[in-house]
Amino acid sequence: QVHLVESGGGLVQTGASLRLSCAASVRTFSNYAMGWFRQAPGKEREFVAAISGRGVNTYVSDSVKGRFTISRDNAKNTMYLQMNGLKPEDTAVYHCAARFGIMWKASGDEYDSWGQGTRVTVSS
Q: For strand 113-114 and strand 58-60, is the pairing parallel, antiparallel, or unpaired?
């Protein structure tokens, strides 16, 4: 398993930006596809974005497309989620997840390791 630690969450106003980071403790970070998921109060976990091991392939969900960008720096064992134009409906705890293998997956069941999460609150 991979130890993952998220950071960068906070309380912001509508329209603001945040950049979330996910630091991984693993020997070869590029061997792992990574994903971001979020869970709002009283709602089920939602897939947000994912990136392949070498960062060549990325995907963001329709709900955040055009506003969120996923990236990774394998030299730093870190993945990022740049969030622009935040809306109150983006309020959630954001978790990063890792799965051994190059290709990303949209289902949380495909991921082996999870971080504790970082809270994002967007006020209207």
A: unpaired
Q: pLDDT tens for residues 4-17?
A: 999 999 999 999 99
Query: Residue 6 is encoded by which pair of tokens?
Result: 């998220």
DSSP three-state, residue 53: coil
Please, is 100 exposed, middle or buried when counting C-beta atoms within 10 Å of its C-beta (0-12, 13-18, 19+)?
middle
Segment 10-62, tens digit of pLDDT: 999 999 999 999 999 999 999 999 999 999 999 999 999 999 999 999 999 99
Phi-psi region of 5 (alpha: psi -120 to 50; beta: other; left: phi over 0): beta
At position 10, the amino acid (one-letter code) is G
Quote the radius of gyration of the chain (alpha carbons, Å): 13
**Type of residue at 41:** P
Query: Which residue carries 């509508």 as its tokens?
Result: 14
